[in-house]
Amino acid sequence: MPVGVLALQGSVREHLDLLERSGGKGIPVKTLRELEQVQGLILPGGESTAMGKLLQDGGLMAPLAERIRRGMPVWGTCAGMVLLASGIEGEETVHLGVMDMTVRRNAYGTQRESFSVRDRIPEMGLGEVPLVFIRAPHIVHAARSVRILKTVRGAAVAARQKNMLATSFHPELTAETGFHRYFLDMVEEAGGSRMFTAP
Ligand code: GLN
Fold this sequence. Notes:
Elements: E1 3-6, H1 12-21, E2 26-29, H2 32-36, E3 41-43, H3 48-57, H4 61-69, E4 74-77, H5 79-84, E5 85-88, E6 99-104, E7 114-121, E8 126-134, E9 138-142, E10 147-152, E11 155-161, E12 164-167, H6 178-197
Parallel strand pairs: 1-2, 1-3, 3-4, 4-12, 5-6
Antiparallel strand pairs: 6-9, 7-8, 10-11, 11-12
Glutamine (GLN) binds next to helix 5.
InterPro entries: Class_I_gatase-like, PdxT/SNO, PdxT/SNO_CS
Pfam families: SNO
Subunit structure: In the presence of PdxS, forms a dodecamer of heterodimers. Only shows activity in the heterodimer.
């Protein structure tokens, strides 16, 4: 079964290309039917308010949240991180609300809206990789069960909670395949445990 990239808005093509270059098979997911065909899902960067509205309007929000709660591996990049969060600073509502963390949108302010650094992420088994931040969120609070994988400039920008991965930055806008390989490993592990627990 392939891995999906939520294709309502945002950097969809870039994720599909990198999935392929990382040895995976990716398909765009716009409908419930397509969601049923994937064993993991990437929520791309873009605009979280727009994506949240399209998820609601298309009837995907509740079924997607349910599949994630049941263990489907999911990875949110940038706006995707905002979609996953159980809290958004200064806002009353959340989107999927499945990952126990509060995020701050556009956390780097208007003057430094976009920047890029190179750094290692030993927690993900990655050597020096490019980290591209575009109007990026960061994590301001996380439950103990959320493992912070990376901090940049003192702020948490990558985290994992069970089957959920969130990054403030955009690996899909670089040539780096390490993050996609990490996610494909998560998908493979989830597949393995499902087989193991089958009756
Ligand atoms: N600022 C956007 C949001 O909150 C995210 C930006 C991005 O994905 N590059 O939705």
